[in-house]
Structure formats: C-alpha cells, structure tokens
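Researcher: Next sequence.
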Amino acid sequence: MTALGTGLSRFRHWLRAHPLALDGALAFAVLVTILVSSFADPHGPNGPTFGTRTPEIRSVALMVLSAAALVFRRRDSMAVLAFTGAVALVELVVGDPPAPVAMSAVIALYTVASRTDRPTTWRVGLLTMTGLTAGAMCFGSGPWYSQENLGIFAWTGIGASAGDAVRSRRAFVDAIRERAERAERTREEEARRRVAEERLRIARDLHDVVAHHIALVNVQAGVAAHVMDKRPDQAKEALAHVREASRSALNELRATVGLLRQSGDPEAPTAPAPGLAVLDELLETFRNAGLAVEVARPDKEVAAPLPAAVDLAVYRIIQEALTNVRKHAGAGAKAEVSVVRVGSSAEVTVLDNGTGPGEGPTEGSGHGLIGMRERVGALGGVLTTAPRYGGGYRVHAILPVEGRTGGNT
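Model: Next structure:
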C-alpha cells in the first residue's frame, strides 16, 4: 500500500508538472467515449440499442475536432468553449440522430467555470445551455421534450456547477494556505522580536556588570600601585578588594551568559537575580573603592517586596548611577541613595555632590544612561537624569508596581 501511495503521489506531481499531457489524455478519453456512444441508437424498437447504428463520416470528423480542441482548454478556455459549442450546435442541426458531440462542450464549460469568476460562469453557462438545448429542440427529429434534449440541458448545467464548485474550493484552500503562511510569518517576526529584546536585555546586564566591577577594579588597582612601596598593608587591602570585585564580576558574567544556554544544557544558572536584598553588599563595594555612599531610606522600609522585574531594575539603576558617580564625579565625591514606595509606584533617587574635577554624564549620552532608560521604559516608568543646581548630578526613576503585580501592595 505504501508503494502504491508513493506511485500515485509521483504520478499526480508529474501530471501537475505536465498539464498538456493531462489535457491530451482527457481529450483522447472524451473522443473514445463519444465515439463509442455514437454507435448507440436511442430510438430502437425496444429502447436504446448498441451496434445497430453507424455514425456518419461528418459526425466522426466533428467528434475528432471537438475532442482535439480540449487539448488547449487551459490556454484559452473561452475560445475552446466557443469552438466546441459551435461544433456541437452543427451536429445537433445536421445529425439525425446527432452524435454526442455536446460532451466536449460540457467539458469546456466546466473548464471556464473553474477558471473564471461566478458572474462569468452564470453568463456563459446560461448562453451555452440555452443555445445547445434550443438547437436540439428546434432541429431534432424527436419531440422537444425528449430525454436527449433534457439530457443536454442537464449535462451543461452539471458542467457549469461542477466547475464553479471546484473554483470555490480552490479559493477556499488558497485562503487557508495564505492565512497559514501569514500566521507563520507572524510567528517568525514575533520570535525575531523576542530574540532582539532578549539580546538587548543581556547587553544591558553585561554593561552594568562590566562597567561597575571594572571601574572598582581600576580604582583599587590604582590605589595599590600608589601605596605599594610606602604602605604595603593598604596595598594588600586594595588588592583584596580587586580580587573580590573581579570574583563578583565573573560570577555575574557567568550567570548572565548562562541565560544563553539551551534549556537542556547542564549546569544552568540557578542563583537568583540581584535585587534590593543585596543592596548593602553593592554599596559596600563602592565604599571600599573610596566613594562615600549614604542610604537616605533603606530598602527594608519599603512597604512590601517589589516584583522581581522592578526589584532588578532598581538594583541595576543604583549600580549604574553609582558607577557613573565614581567615574565622573571625581575624588571626594559623596552619593546619596533613596528607595521609597509612593502609592502604586517605587521611586529611586541617586544624588551626588560632584565636588571633584569630573562632571556628570551628558543627558542621553553613554550606554549606561541608555540602558537605564530602556529598563525603566520596559516597565512603563519614567527616568529623569540631569545636573543639580550648584553641582553634582541627579538620577530619578519612577517605576509602576501595582500594574505589574495585579494590584498587590
């Protein structure tokens, strides 16, 4: 059964690739059918009889012409219908009894109906039915209500109806296929969009991790180099901070890059994402690097734990803002961090006095500010960054909480 099904499938594919061969086979089959039918006498003494009648040469020629025209039915279906209809009408007028040449016109009418629209099918079908039926009724030897005349009317109607049904089914299948292709394109576009968003998120995390820890490593390495000869104990302490910062950087990089693993890969990261729970550790790293940081309102005073996405965003905003303070505000700078819950929002503020020679980052410049703005925008919040009057810089973010947690407070 499998071999038979495979053979039939290959044969169908071959016929679709060679439509002229299929039309030639159809024309031959129609010719054989109407030739065999022309030997039947519908008016025998005891009803229709076979073999008692021989078609005339003229009828054979008309049958051959009408069947041969079907070979070109796909190229110009309307012209083939007109030709076969005219040949059938000639046979109905001069034949007594006429040979079944009208079957070629029925096939041609089916082709027109299957390849055009419904209004055209109605017009052409009615014209063909009327012309052939009227010719048979007016010029036939039998009464106008004979079954041969009704048969011509019925067969032409069946041809038009079958062609219209096939056209409708093809349109329906094409519509389903188009919807499926559109849905597939939509899924692919959605997948590409999600991949782009994930890449952007990972890029932000990598920037936050690298910028923060490398800045601390740079500061502590400079301190160690400066006091190595005169104060080796302080140099050892600075190098210990370098080691600790580099270890933290490696751990966070490993966790971030681990997100790129496939779900089946072993040793997938299981550590939780950083948040306000480890804010003290983050602030301690900056204090060890020489940046005085004060917490105006510790995170424990926040009314309730923040959602995971908001908690991570708050942590990264504080990390990036303090990194910018350490890089741009200069030596002796002080920073102040505030995390408060105001209604359905969480507000994060990072201030510095900017007493050193450095200046705060220009509004909208740098990957750090861009990353913070994208994080806040992804959560539907607002980020404001601007120099402070009298010196220093201010980073202020408002992040919605209730809309992300279903209204929980």
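Model: The longest strand covers residues 334-342. The chain has twelve helices and seven strands.
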